From TrEMBL:
Taxonomic placement: Bacteria, Bacillati, Bacillota, Clostridia, Peptostreptococcales
Organism: Alkaliphilus pronyensis
Domain called YgjP-like metallopeptidase: residue spans: 14-219
Protein name: M48 family metallopeptidase
InterPro entries linked to this entry: UTP_pyrophosphatase-like (IPR053136), YgjP-like_metallopeptidase (IPR002725)
Domain of life: Bacteria
One Pfam family per UniProt: YgjP-like
Length: 227
Protein backbone atom coordinates (compact mmCIF):
# COMPACT_ATOMS: atom_id res chain seq x y z
CA UNK A 1 0.00 0.00 0.00
CA UNK A 2 1.34 3.41 -0.97
CA UNK A 3 1.96 5.80 1.89
CA UNK A 4 0.76 9.37 1.39
CA UNK A 5 2.82 12.05 3.09
CA UNK A 6 3.36 15.79 3.23
CA UNK A 7 6.84 17.30 2.82
CA UNK A 8 7.98 20.42 4.67
CA UNK A 9 11.49 21.62 3.81
CA UNK A 10 13.49 24.13 5.84
CA UNK A 11 16.90 25.79 5.53
CA UNK A 12 17.40 25.41 9.29
CA UNK A 13 16.72 21.69 9.42
CA UNK A 14 19.81 19.48 9.57
CA UNK A 15 18.26 16.03 9.24
CA UNK A 16 15.11 14.38 7.96
CA UNK A 17 12.42 13.35 10.44
CA UNK A 18 8.97 11.77 10.07
CA UNK A 19 6.06 12.94 12.23
CA UNK A 20 2.77 11.07 12.62
CA UNK A 21 0.09 13.63 13.52
CA UNK A 22 -2.92 12.78 15.72
CA UNK A 23 -5.18 12.95 12.65
CA UNK A 24 -2.91 10.27 11.07
CA UNK A 25 -1.28 12.63 8.59
CA UNK A 26 2.34 11.75 7.84
CA UNK A 27 4.57 14.82 7.71
CA UNK A 28 8.18 14.66 6.54
CA UNK A 29 10.40 17.46 7.87
CA UNK A 30 13.47 17.72 5.67
CA UNK A 31 16.49 19.94 4.98
CA UNK A 32 15.89 22.28 2.06
CA UNK A 33 18.12 20.43 -0.42
CA UNK A 34 16.65 16.95 0.21
CA UNK A 35 15.36 15.44 -3.03
CA UNK A 36 11.93 13.86 -3.45
CA UNK A 37 13.67 10.60 -4.33
CA UNK A 38 15.70 10.59 -1.10
CA UNK A 39 12.53 11.24 0.90
CA UNK A 40 10.72 8.39 -0.89
CA UNK A 41 13.60 6.04 -0.07
CA UNK A 42 13.44 6.97 3.62
CA UNK A 43 9.66 6.51 3.68
CA UNK A 44 10.04 3.08 2.03
CA UNK A 45 12.66 2.05 4.58
CA UNK A 46 10.38 3.16 7.46
CA UNK A 47 7.15 1.54 6.23
CA UNK A 48 6.90 -0.95 9.07
CA UNK A 49 7.62 1.73 11.68
CA UNK A 50 4.99 4.03 10.13
CA UNK A 51 2.32 1.29 10.11
CA UNK A 52 3.12 0.45 13.75
CA UNK A 53 2.75 4.12 14.73
CA UNK A 54 -0.54 4.45 12.84
CA UNK A 55 -1.85 1.47 14.77
CA UNK A 56 -0.74 2.75 18.19
CA UNK A 57 -3.50 1.76 20.69
CA UNK A 58 -3.14 4.90 22.85
CA UNK A 59 -2.38 7.65 20.37
CA UNK A 60 -5.17 6.60 18.02
CA UNK A 61 -7.59 4.92 20.44
CA UNK A 62 -11.24 4.80 19.42
CA UNK A 63 -13.26 7.73 20.68
CA UNK A 64 -15.05 6.81 23.91
CA UNK A 65 -17.98 9.12 23.12
CA UNK A 66 -19.33 11.31 20.38
CA UNK A 67 -17.33 14.53 20.00
CA UNK A 68 -18.65 17.65 21.61
CA UNK A 69 -19.79 18.40 25.14
CA UNK A 70 -23.31 19.23 26.22
CA UNK A 71 -23.51 22.27 28.48
CA UNK A 72 -26.05 21.38 31.19
CA UNK A 73 -26.52 22.03 34.89
CA UNK A 74 -24.33 19.78 37.01
CA UNK A 75 -21.89 19.05 34.18
CA UNK A 76 -18.24 19.88 34.84
CA UNK A 77 -15.59 21.51 32.66
CA UNK A 78 -11.82 21.66 32.98
CA UNK A 79 -9.83 24.83 33.52
CA UNK A 80 -6.09 24.72 34.28
CA UNK A 81 -6.32 21.06 35.24
CA UNK A 82 -9.23 21.36 37.68
CA UNK A 83 -12.91 20.57 37.19
CA UNK A 84 -15.53 23.25 37.81
CA UNK A 85 -19.28 22.84 37.81
CA UNK A 86 -21.58 24.26 35.15
CA UNK A 87 -24.58 26.34 36.15
CA UNK A 88 -27.15 27.83 33.78
CA UNK A 89 -28.44 31.15 35.12
CA UNK A 90 -30.96 33.81 34.18
CA UNK A 91 -28.85 36.71 32.96
CA UNK A 92 -29.07 39.79 30.77
CA UNK A 93 -25.43 39.17 29.89
CA UNK A 94 -24.77 37.01 26.82
CA UNK A 95 -21.26 36.03 27.97
CA UNK A 96 -19.88 33.16 30.01
CA UNK A 97 -18.80 34.21 33.50
CA UNK A 98 -16.31 32.21 35.58
CA UNK A 99 -16.58 32.46 39.37
CA UNK A 100 -15.31 29.11 40.67
CA UNK A 101 -18.14 27.85 38.47
CA UNK A 102 -18.90 28.18 34.78
CA UNK A 103 -21.97 30.42 34.74
CA UNK A 104 -23.73 30.27 31.38
CA UNK A 105 -26.70 32.46 30.37
CA UNK A 106 -29.76 30.22 30.17
CA UNK A 107 -31.16 32.10 27.18
CA UNK A 108 -28.04 31.31 25.11
CA UNK A 109 -28.22 27.50 25.44
CA UNK A 110 -27.65 26.82 21.75
CA UNK A 111 -24.59 29.09 21.74
CA UNK A 112 -22.97 27.91 24.97
CA UNK A 113 -20.25 25.84 23.32
CA UNK A 114 -19.34 28.89 21.24
CA UNK A 115 -19.25 31.01 24.40
CA UNK A 116 -17.03 28.43 26.12
CA UNK A 117 -14.51 28.33 23.26
CA UNK A 118 -14.48 32.12 23.10
CA UNK A 119 -13.76 32.24 26.85
CA UNK A 120 -10.94 29.69 26.60
CA UNK A 121 -9.36 31.65 23.74
CA UNK A 122 -9.50 34.89 25.73
CA UNK A 123 -7.94 33.20 28.78
CA UNK A 124 -5.24 31.64 26.60
CA UNK A 125 -4.29 35.03 25.16
CA UNK A 126 -4.17 36.54 28.66
CA UNK A 127 -2.15 33.74 30.26
CA UNK A 128 -0.16 31.90 27.60
CA UNK A 129 1.22 34.75 25.48
CA UNK A 130 2.86 36.70 28.37
CA UNK A 131 4.17 33.41 29.77
CA UNK A 132 5.67 32.48 26.41
CA UNK A 133 7.39 35.86 26.16
CA UNK A 134 8.89 35.34 29.63
CA UNK A 135 10.21 31.88 28.74
CA UNK A 136 11.57 33.21 25.44
CA UNK A 137 13.54 35.81 27.39
CA UNK A 138 14.81 33.13 29.79
CA UNK A 139 15.97 31.01 26.85
CA UNK A 140 17.50 33.97 25.02
CA UNK A 141 15.38 33.46 21.91
CA UNK A 142 13.01 35.69 19.99
CA UNK A 143 9.93 34.43 18.18
CA UNK A 144 8.57 36.37 15.22
CA UNK A 145 5.09 35.98 16.68
CA UNK A 146 3.29 34.07 19.43
CA UNK A 147 -0.31 33.20 18.59
CA UNK A 148 -3.22 31.29 20.07
CA UNK A 149 -4.67 29.02 17.41
CA UNK A 150 -7.63 26.67 16.92
CA UNK A 151 -5.68 23.47 16.33
CA UNK A 152 -7.32 20.22 17.39
CA UNK A 153 -4.49 17.80 16.67
CA UNK A 154 -1.37 19.70 17.72
CA UNK A 155 -0.75 21.37 21.06
CA UNK A 156 1.76 23.75 19.58
CA UNK A 157 4.09 24.36 16.68
CA UNK A 158 7.19 26.32 15.74
CA UNK A 159 7.16 27.26 12.07
CA UNK A 160 10.13 27.67 9.76
CA UNK A 161 9.58 31.44 10.05
CA UNK A 162 10.01 31.27 13.85
CA UNK A 163 6.32 31.74 14.63
CA UNK A 164 5.07 30.01 17.79
CA UNK A 165 1.48 28.72 17.73
CA UNK A 166 -0.26 27.31 20.82
CA UNK A 167 -3.70 25.63 20.90
CA UNK A 168 -6.31 27.28 23.13
CA UNK A 169 -7.44 23.79 24.17
CA UNK A 170 -4.44 23.72 26.52
CA UNK A 171 -6.39 25.97 28.91
CA UNK A 172 -8.00 22.75 30.13
CA UNK A 173 -4.58 21.40 31.20
CA UNK A 174 -2.57 22.16 34.37
CA UNK A 175 -0.16 25.07 34.15
CA UNK A 176 2.95 22.85 34.22
CA UNK A 177 1.63 21.13 31.08
CA UNK A 178 1.03 24.48 29.39
CA UNK A 179 4.57 25.52 30.35
CA UNK A 180 5.92 22.29 28.85
CA UNK A 181 4.29 22.95 25.47
CA UNK A 182 5.45 26.59 25.45
CA UNK A 183 9.04 25.66 26.31
CA UNK A 184 9.00 22.73 23.89
CA UNK A 185 8.10 24.99 20.96
CA UNK A 186 10.50 27.77 22.00
CA UNK A 187 13.34 25.23 22.31
CA UNK A 188 12.90 24.54 18.60
CA UNK A 189 14.22 28.06 17.97
CA UNK A 190 17.53 26.75 19.35
CA UNK A 191 17.46 23.13 18.15
CA UNK A 192 15.09 22.19 15.33
CA UNK A 193 15.16 18.44 15.97
CA UNK A 194 14.31 16.32 18.99
CA UNK A 195 17.94 15.63 19.82
CA UNK A 196 19.35 14.94 23.32
CA UNK A 197 20.42 18.60 23.35
CA UNK A 198 16.82 19.65 22.64
CA UNK A 199 15.42 17.61 25.53
CA UNK A 200 18.16 18.90 27.85
CA UNK A 201 17.07 22.47 27.02
CA UNK A 202 13.43 21.68 27.80
CA UNK A 203 14.17 19.80 31.01
CA UNK A 204 16.49 22.55 32.27
CA UNK A 205 13.61 24.99 32.03
CA UNK A 206 10.95 22.56 33.25
CA UNK A 207 12.02 19.80 35.69
CA UNK A 208 8.41 18.47 35.50
CA UNK A 209 8.87 17.64 31.79
CA UNK A 210 8.25 13.90 32.19
CA UNK A 211 5.21 14.52 34.40
CA UNK A 212 3.80 16.86 31.73
CA UNK A 213 4.39 14.31 28.96
CA UNK A 214 2.62 11.66 31.03
CA UNK A 215 -0.36 13.97 31.66
CA UNK A 216 -0.73 14.59 27.93
CA UNK A 217 -0.45 10.87 27.18
CA UNK A 218 -3.20 10.05 29.68
CA UNK A 219 -5.51 13.05 29.13
CA UNK A 220 -4.64 14.53 25.75
CA UNK A 221 -7.23 12.71 23.68
CA UNK A 222 -10.06 13.70 26.03
CA UNK A 223 -9.03 17.36 26.01
CA UNK A 224 -8.74 17.46 22.22
CA UNK A 225 -11.99 15.67 21.45
CA UNK A 226 -14.44 17.28 23.85
CA UNK A 227 -14.44 20.70 22.18
Amino acid sequence: MDIKYEIRRSKKRKKLTINIERDRRIVVLAPENTSDEKIRQVIDSKKQWIHEKLGHPQKFAAKPHAPGKEIINGESLYYLGHQYQVELIESTNDELVFDNKFLFPMQEKEKNLVLLKKWYVRCAKEKIIPRARKFAKDLGVEAESIKIVDNKYRWGSCTTKNNINISWRLMQAPMFVIDYIIIHELAHLIEANHTPEFWNIVKAQLPKMEKAKLWLKENGQRVQEEL
